[in-house]
Amino acid sequence: MMNNMIQNNPVSEIMVKNIIALKRGDNLERAEMLFNKYKIKHIPVVSSDVVIGMLSFSDLLKISLAEITEDEHNVNTIVYNTFKIEQVMSKNIVTIHSDTTIKEAATILAEREFHALPVVDEGVLVGIVTTTDLLNYYIKQY
């Protein structure tokens, strides 16, 4: 049984602080490059450090063409240039504070359909917590 002290630790202990973020004006090709380069699945979208949305790798896949063509890159380029990040990102996001408990963050993620929570203090993005971060944290407790 996990003790209560551990569950009451703040998410600041497990959040990723070196945030990869997209700006409102970035294009989807840049998003794809960031997903692949950093092997991440969620990227907050910011406007002057204020979170305005969240783009997930699955959002990007939804707009990519399912067909595999000989020149896949050009097809993706055409599709990506058709959409702006703001059209594809989730705007209905939930943010948490760095002092939110790990248990509270886990509860939010368990009850919702998304898998990442931007951590915002005084209106500024300071980190991100994903279901993977939580699972890794809980695994370490045993």
Summarize the structure.
With 142 residues, this protein is an alpha+beta fold. It is 40% helix and 20% strand. The chain has a single domain, classed as CBS-domain (Roll).
- Rg calculated over all Cα atoms: 17 Å
Task: Supply the number of helical segments.
Answer: 7
Total of domains: 1
Element-level helix/strand string: HEHEEHHHHEEH
Roughly how much helix do the residues carry, as a percent range? 40-55%
Principal-axis shape equals globular
Quick one: how many beta strands?
5
Low-pLDDT parts are 66-71
End-to-end C-alpha gap? 9 Å
Biggest sheet architecture: 3 strands, mixed
Q: Give the strand line-up of the largest sheet.
A: 1-2-3
CATH superfamily: CBS-domain
Q: Give me the CATH fold name.
A: CBS-domain
Subunit arrangement of the protein: single chain
Helix and strand composition category: alpha+beta
Written description of the protein model:
It is a single chain. With 142 residues, this protein is an alpha+beta fold. The chain has a single domain (4-140), classed as CBS-domain (Roll). 40% of the residues lie in helices and 20% in strands. It is built from seven helices and five strands; from the N terminus they run αβαββααααββα. The protein has helices spanning 4-7, 28-38, 57-63, 72-82, 85-88, 102-111, 131-140; strands at 22-23, 42-47, 50-56, 116-121, 124-130. A three-stranded mixed sheet has the order 1-2-3. A two-stranded antiparallel sheet has the order 4-5. The longest helix is centred in the N-terminal third of the chain and has 11 residues, at 28-38. It is globular and about 50 Å long. The termini are close together. Mean pLDDT is 86; it is low at 66-71. Keywords: CBS domain. Residues 15-72, 89-142 form the CBS domain. This is CBS domain-containing protein. It comes from Mariniflexile litorale. InterPro entries: CBS_dom, CBS_dom_sf, Diverse_CBS-Domain.
